[in-house]
Design brief:
Alkaline Phosphatase, subunit A; 14 helices; single chain; alpha/beta
Length: 478
């Protein structure tokens, strides 16, 4: 064999070797399943309310970490969801996200990416079903179905809201059984328990569509998904299939804590959202039998929502997606059931701001853990970045919760909230509310009086320190 031929063979062999690079299997980033529940206070079995039937949420908590002291940043749907979906503090009314959208439409560069947009930019398919932003389906207009008015531009590959018999998203928002929509609140019953399946109320449709989207997204192995499913109940009016009311036959509910209207200047209000419904001329602050009926119907709505949570989690497991999916269950704010003589949210008391937060993900170092660390909704965006290995944007105001997942005994951080230009801060031991006119409420949570006795005048140094902390934490909306 000639020398030239030998050289040619050797060179060819080396070329082949150089082309055979080791193939590394690409590790897909974890999926995200975010379950939002409207008006859900942390009155669940797993949170110690043994009279509540919530087995599916309880099971989720047993597989993850339950945050016992999670506080929202606003006691109303719109501004609370703004904080969840943007990672920053913002406008204090229900049109918060639409105001952001107006700025975006004028100059996209003037608005930082939302949480779903951030994950979309990092390779995720993003889908929302139901009430994730303030309007179910994420659109504006008179009937909340105008596709030219998007609540969160650039956020979702799909934002879906099945309407069924209720015909429009605005119809589903306050819908009762079999397509009944709210035309005049005073003509719609404050509560209802109709006989029928889960599909006779709008959340049945939301869950059905959510299961469909979950199956479709999980079948695409090329991209991870961010799926948000928003359930409406237990939002007013309190309507759920009768079988969920039947769960509470013979159940004794605890007495309402501190049921009296507070004295002095507070953020107490007249429960206008609640009182405008047809109450058959009854006032739960004066009629305890009626109050107990309301509380029981609220509980039925919680159990109805819990059933849908179970359906979603069962589907996740059945299709095998649970092995690579982070699950977050979040309540958008709390709800007064007669505490401080309030029925509803919209105050800056503990009951309006305290809501459930549960995080579970595959191969957690700890599960079935509960932490008493104080955390808030603004922390969720950076937490999801941390858990997925995606860069955390520098504009978010919260802190990752991963350290609390790894060490439930770790101390938390103060939680800020706002309403009507009043601000409140919750620490391990106190809540202070600073009114726009300078008046201060200070409550000692280590005392038996808790949020019924204002001790601001007794602790001026603490008041000044907490005022400074509020000023430090609250920044202008972007």
């Amino acid at each position: 064999m000639s020398k030239n031929i030998i050289v040619f063979i050797v060179l060819g062999f080396m070329t082949v070797l150089s082309c055979k690079k080791p193939v590394k299997e690409k590790q897909q980033k974890p999926n995200i399943l975010l379950i939002c529940i409207d008006d859900l206070r942390p009155e669940l079995n797993t949170y110690g309310a043994t009279h509540i039937h919530s087995p599916n949420i309880d099971n989720l908590a047993a597989s993850g970490v339950q945050f016992n002291r999670h506080y929202v940043n606003a006691p109303s749907c719109g501004p609370s969801r703004f904080t969840l979906l943007t990672g920053v503090f913002g406008p204090q009314d229900n049109s918060a996200l639409f105001k952001r959208a107006e700025k975006f439409n004028k100059d996209p560069n003037s608005v930082k990416p939302s949480m779903p947009e951030w994950f979309r930019k990092h390779g995720y398919t993003t889908v929302s079903v139901g009430k994730v932003s303030h309007h179910p389906g994420g659109r504006g207009g008179k009937l909340w179905n105008d596709s030219t008015k998007i609540e969160i531009p650039n956020a979702w590959d799909k934002h879906l809201m099945p309407v069924g018999e209720w015909e429009t998203p605005v119809g589903t928002m306050h819908g009762l059984a079999h397509g009944e929509v709210r035309k005049k609140a005073n003509e719609m019953a404050i509560f209802q328990s109709a006989v029928g399946t889960d599909m006779i109320y709008p959340d049945g449709l939301i869950t059905k569509e959510g299961l469909k989207q979950l199956k479709t997204l999980a079948s695409d192995n090329s991209k991870p998904f961010f799926l948000a499913i928003g359930l409406i109940k237990p939002h007013l009016p309190f309507g759920a299939p009768k079988k969920y009311m039947d769960l509470y036959d013979g159940i004794e509910f605890p007495e309402i804590q501190h049921p009296d209207k507070p004295e002095g200047i507070t953020t107490w209000h007249k429960s206008g959202e609640f009182m405008k419904y047809n109450r058959w001329e009854k006032d739960p602050n004066e009629d305890n039998t009626f109050a107990q009926e309301i509380i029981k119907h609220y509980a039925a709505c919680v159990s109805y929502a819990d059933k849908h949570v179970g359906d979603i989690l069962n589907q996740l497991k059945q299709i095998g997606a649970d092995k690579n999916t982070i699950v977050i269950l979040w309540g958008d704010h709390g709800w007064h059931l007669g505490e401080h003589a309030i029925w509803g949210k919209h105050s800056l008391f503990e009951e309006s701001l305290h809501s459930p937060l549960i995080i579970s993900y595959p191969n957690m170092d700890k599960s079935d853990s509960k932490t008493d660390a104080i955390v808030s909704t603004v922390d969720i965006f950076p937490t999801l970045c941390d858990l997925t290995g995606i860069e955390t944007p520098d504009f978010v105001k919260g802190e990752t919760l991963k350290p609390f997942i790894e060490n439930p005994n770790k101390s938390g951080h103060a939680a800020i909230a706002y309403r009507a230009n009043n601000h409140t801060i919750r620490t391990d031991t106190h809540r202070m509310t600073l009114h726009k006119n300078g008046f201060v409420e200070l409550y000692d949570h280590t005392s038996k009086e808790k949020e019924t006795k204002n001790v601001a005048e007794e602790k001026p140094e603490l008041v000044e320190a907490l005022k400074a902390l509020i000023e430090e934490k609250i920044k202008p909306a972007h």
